[in-house]
User: Fold this.
Amino acid sequence: MSYLMRYGVIAGPPLRGVGVIHHKRDVSLSEDGLRTGKAAVNRLLGSLRTLVTNLLESMNVKNMAAQIDTFADKFTTLIQVLTQQMVL
Assistant:
C-alpha cells in the first residue's frame, strides 16, 4: 500500500463511515468554516485535512483539536512525532 493511500490522501476502496470522518475533520480542523472559491485549493485542503486526521488517529489521540493546538505551540514536538511516524 502506498504512503498516500495508507493515510487516506488518495482514494482507495469505498469509504465507510464517511459521516464520522467528516465530523472528525470538521470538529478538529473547522473544515466547514474554511472554503475558497477555487476547486483545486479546496481539494488540496481536503487532502491535507484527511492526512492530518489519519495521522492523529494512527497515534491514538483522544482529543485531536487539543493535540493540534499542542503541535502548534511546540513545533519541535510535531517534527519529532512525524519523524517517529516515518512521515518525514
Q: What stands out?
A: Residues 3-84 form one domain. The helical segments are 3-6, 18-29, 39-58, 64-73, 75-84.
